[in-house]
Amino acid sequence: MSEPEQPTAYEWMGGAENLLDLVTRFYGYMDSLPEAAPIRAMHAADLDGARQKLFKFLSGWLGGPNLYWEEYGHPRLRMRHFPFPIGPAERDQWLLCMRRALDDTPMHPQLREAFYTAMTQTAQHMVNQEPS
């Protein structure tokens, strides 16, 4: 008899609906927090495309449907972000928005912290500029 499958992080956080809520809150903070204005300026006027891409990426990354891969192929995050000057300040602005969005999204506290830790590592990997 086989072991029952463990739920994925995607399932633990509530699936597509809660993930979309998280991503929407994230971009809402990016759009409204004065502290996030520099990274907001790196995005298109309409955040819908960025919102959709982040949702699709996180869906597969969390163990849900692999929407990003199906549409765009390998994420190649660092390469895709390389045209943008990302230093520690931009990393921290991005993480501020993510922290606030995560704090507003219902989920188990351990999952929230694990998710934030992983996002912190990913954001650090995107840094391509020395501090000014």
UniProtKB/TrEMBL annotation:
Q: Which cofactor does it need?
A: heme
Q: Which InterPro entries match?
A: GlbO/GLB3-like, Globin-like_sf, Globin/Proto, Globin_bac-like_CS, Hemoglobin_trunc
Q: Is the keyword Acyltransferase in the record?
A: no
> What's one GO MF term for it?
metal ion binding
Listed A to Z, the keywords are: Heme, Iron, Metal-binding, Transport
The organism sits in which domain of life?
Answer: Bacteria
Q: Where are the transmembrane segments?
A: none
Kindly give the Gene3D superfamilies that the UniProt entry links to this protein: Globins
The record's section on Pfam families has: Bac_globin
Q: Which family does it belong to?
A: Belongs to the truncated hemoglobin family. Group II subfamily.
Q: What is this protein called?
A: Globin
